Amino acid sequence: MAKIVGGIGCSHVPAVGAASDHGKTKDGYWTPLFNALPAARKWLSDLKPDVMILVYNDHGSAFSLELIPTFAIGTAENFKPADEGYGPRDIPDVEGHAELAWHIAESCIMDEFDLTIANKMDVDHGCTVPLTVFFGEVEKWPVRVIPICVNVIQFPPPTANRCFNLGRAIKKAISTFPEDLNVVVAGTGGMSHQLQGERSGVVNTEFDINYLNQLSEDNDKNRYMNHIDYIREAGSEGIEMVMWQIMRGAMEEKIVEKFRKYHVASSNTAFGIICFENEEA
Fold first, then answer.
1. Is residue 67's pLDDT more than 80?
2. In 15, 98, 130, 199, which residue has its Cα 20 to 30 A from 262's Cα atom?
3. Is 193 a catalytic residue?
4. Are the C-beta atoms of residues 186 and 134 closer than 8 Å to each other?
């Protein structure tokens, strides 16, 4: 059977992808962040994942305000990097796992999560920047990826608790897939940041660190936080962190932290990455 071997929470700051693409990782500003990543990459490589469930939000590339699915799952065999206004990133295509994706879609829908099925979509920085963080510059991504898009752009987004419960449903689906696969679940977005208005540029380090700590110690505080509190504490784009709850819901109740890096500032955003394994019985 397929099994979940790890979970990752990670920011998807577009400037991180640009720094990698344009050789800026050693220029001083980005060095502390990129120097920390080899340890996370080794941890992930040692897990030998076959598939990554990558949860992110589209930024107007595959969807728009004309069509806003709360949850959408990519069921294609291939996903192209999106052109976000300056041409697609010069990175490999994202190879999907259609058979597992369809199995997850069917299982989750039977569990009353009405996932929108996307047989074709381009993936933007929300998906591709985490892949760069996890694997660096490669000719081919070493895992197959099932992208899951969450609406955190247009009110109302799903609650953190709803995201957590979707993670539970995904966990159940993976456990019933008959092929032996190692699966990693990554929830991306955040951390605290706001891109517009009077609070543009806000970073709340205390909130971010508490959120990271609570993922393993007392996640109910993150899980049951309402929209207003997420936005008040972490900025309007900080609501993206509800997507980390899909990862957390897919893991067991007891987890072990294997890696963490928190970095301020990354562009105008706080950057965080945290890696977990399930605690062995």
1. yes
2. 199
3. yes
4. yes
In Å, what is the CA distance from 160 to each residue of 32, 227, 245, 276?
Answer: 31, 8, 6, 19
Q: Considering the candidates 97, 193, 227, 263, report the single residue annotated as catalytic.
A: 193
pLDDT score of 258 more than 80? yes
Q: What domains does the chain contain, in order, with CATH numbers?
A: 3-204+215-225+235-264 (3.40.830.10)
What is this structure's pTM?
A: 0.97
CB-CB contact of 184 with 6 (8 Å): yes
pLDDT one-digit tens code per residue, 166-193: 999 999 999 999 999 999 999 999 999 9
| 205, 27 Cβ separation under 8 angstroms | no
Residues 6+ apart with CB under 8 A from 229: none
Q: What is the pLDDT of residue 280?
A: 84
> In this structure, what token pair is assigned to residue 252?
């067991």
Order of strands, sheet of 182-188, starting from the edge strand that comes earlier in the sequence: 116-118, 71-74, 144-150, 51-56, 182-188, 3-10, 269-278, 255-266
Report percent pLDDT > 70 for the chain. 100
* Contact indicator for 244, 238 with CB cutoff of 8 Å: no
**8 A C-beta contact, residue 180 and residue 4:** no
Residues 78-92 have a mean pLDDT of: 96
Q: Do residues 161 and 245 make contact, with C-beta atoms less than 8 angstroms apart? A: yes
Write out the H or E segment, with its range, that includes residue 275: strand 269-278
Indicate which residue of 103, 125, 227, 263 is catalytic.
125
Name the strand (E) or helix (H) holding 3. Answer: strand 3-10
Please provide the DSSP assignment of 58-102 as one string: --SSS-BTTB--SEEEE--SEEPBPB-SS-B-SSPPEE--HHHHH
